[in-house]
Amino acid sequence: MSRVTKMRNHVSAFLALAALLLPAIASAYIGPGPGLSAIGSLLALVGAVLLAIVGFVWYPIRRLLRRGRNGKGGAPPTGEAGGEETPDTRRK
User: Fold this and answer.
1) CA–CA separation, 63 vs 76, rounded Å?
2) How much is the pTM?
């Protein structure tokens, strides 16, 4: 079997599968309730993905900016950032 014949077989198999999977006629009605729910869910998904991307990009940049300003790396050690007094850190 030649290379061209194999390629034709693959293309024709793909087109036949695509024709079987695609609906011929979609006689469907989506009312306002399910339509708004679908739109809201889609917007929430897009927003979550965008916030995740911003989080993964912004926080490393923020740490680099802090590092440049303070001369040290990263955030302050745990327990020293908020200025709250705990029983261990109170001065007597």
Assistant:
1) 11
2) 0.42
Judge whether 24 and 32 are in contact, CB under 8 Å: no
Taking alpha carbons only, the member of 9, 24, 80 closest to residue 88 is 80
Task: Report the C-alpha gap between 12 and 2 in whole angstroms.
Answer: 16
Closest CA to 63 of 50, 52, 76: 76
Closest CA to 78 of 90, 89, 65: 89
Q: What distance lies between CA 25 and its chain's CA centroid?
A: 33
Segment 35-89, tens digit of pLDDT? 899 999 999 999 999 999 998 998 888 888 888 777 665 555 555 555 555 666 6
CA angle 45, 46, 49 (to 5 degrees): 85
